[in-house]
Amino acid sequence: MKNTLLKLVNEIGQSGDENAVSSVAAKELERYSNVRIDKFNNVIATFGNLNSPKHILLDAHIDQIGMIVTYIDEKGFISVSNCGGIDKKILPGMAVKIQGKRDVKGVFSNVPPHLSVLDSDKFLDINKLSIDTGLNKETLDDLIAIGDRVSFDIKACELLNGRISAPGIDNKAGVAAIIHCAELLAGEGENLPYKVTVLLSAQEETSALGAKTKAFEVEPDESIIVDVTFASQMDISEKTMGEFAKGPMIGISPILSREMSDKLISLSKENELPYQLEVMSKRTGTNADSIAVSKSGVKCALLSIPIRYMHTPCEVVDISDIESTGKLLAMYIKNGGAF
User: Fold this and answer.
1) Are 325 and 58 in contact (CB under 8 A)?
2) Is 330 strand, coil or helix?
3) 81, 127 in Cβ contact below 8 A?
4) N or C: the chain end with fewer CB closer than 10 Å?
C-alpha cells in the first residue's frame, strides 16, 4: 500500500493535466481489470460479473491542485493563477517547478519581514505573488509559455507511525484505496454479484468534469465515492474531524443513500473494520454531488480518508486508513451491497 501511494504522489497530476499519474494508476489497475484512459485523462476499468444486473461505480478523483502560468514580465518574474483551492498562506518562499519545454525550478518571491508593510497575519493573493527562476525574460520565453503548469517542488517523505507526507495525497489516497479493493477482489470474476466500474476521475478540483461525463456514460445503479476529509490537528475543533488509524469516515448526507451508508456501517461492525462517521447537512463537496444527479440519478455513498494539512504541499495520511477503506469497499461488493 505504501509503495502504491508513493508511486502515485511522485507523479504530478494537476487538474486538466493528469496524463502522467493516470498512466501510473492504469498500470497498477491493469493487473486486476481491463483498463483504458480516455481523452480527458480519466482512468476507467471494469471487472467482476460483467453480466450482472447490478452495476456499481467506484470513483476517486486522480487530479490535484496546482498552478498555471499567466504572465512573464520584462524582468523575468512569472505570474500564476491557481488550479484548485491553494492555501495562499504557504506560498511565499515556496519552491516550485514549472513544466515548460523542460522543468524549470523557481521560488515564490517574498518580501522579508524587515521590509514588509503588511501585518504579519495578512497574506497576499496568488495573483499578487511572482515566481523567481533566476532567468531573464528572453531565456524564459524559450523555455516557458503562458498556460504551462506549475507544481510544488516537494518530494514525498515517510513520517513515523505509518504516515506519509506529500503533495497530492488529496486524492491519491482515494485512488490507492480503490486499487487495493481491486487487488482484494482479484480472481473473484463471475462470482461477484456486481459488475464493477472503476473511475479515477479527472478535474475534480476545478470542474468535476471527469465524474460528470463518465457517470453519464457508464450509467451505474450505485456509486461509492472515495475522497479525503479533515483529520484532527492542533488548534482545530475535533467535533467534525476524523482521527488517524480509525478507518474511513462514512458519509451521511441528504444527497447520499442512507441504505448504502447503513450497509457500510453494518459491514464495518460485523467484520470489526474501523470506521468513523461524517455528517453533512447539505452537499458533500465531492464527486458524489455530481454522480448522484447524473442522468436519472444514481444512489451514492461516500468514504472519506482523514488527512491533515489539506491543499498544501505537506498533506499527511495514515496508511492504515487507506487499507481499511479498500477492505470496506471489497466487503461491500462481495456481500452484494445494500439492495
Assistant:
1) no
2) helix
3) yes
4) C
Q: Give the closest residue to 130 by CA, choosing from 57, 72, 214, 54.
A: 72
Residue with cell 501511494: 5
Retrieve residue 69's grid coordinates: 502560468
Nearest-angstrom CA–CA distance, 166 and 168? 6
Angle between helices 2-9 and 19-29 (to 10 degrees): 160
Rounded-to-integer distance, Cα 204 and Cα 303, Å: 16
pLDDT tens for the 339 residues of the chain, in order: 999 999 999 999 999 999 999 999 999 999 999 999 999 999 999 999 999 999 999 999 999 999 999 999 999 999 999 999 998 888 999 999 999 999 999 999 877 766 655 565 666 788 889 999 999 999 999 999 999 999 999 999 999 999 999 999 999 999 999 999 999 999 898 999 999 999 999 999 999 999 999 999 999 999 999 999 999 988 787 787 999 999 999 999 999 999 999 999 999 999 999 999 999 999 999 999 999 999 999 999 999 999 999 999 999 999 999 999 999 999 999 999 999
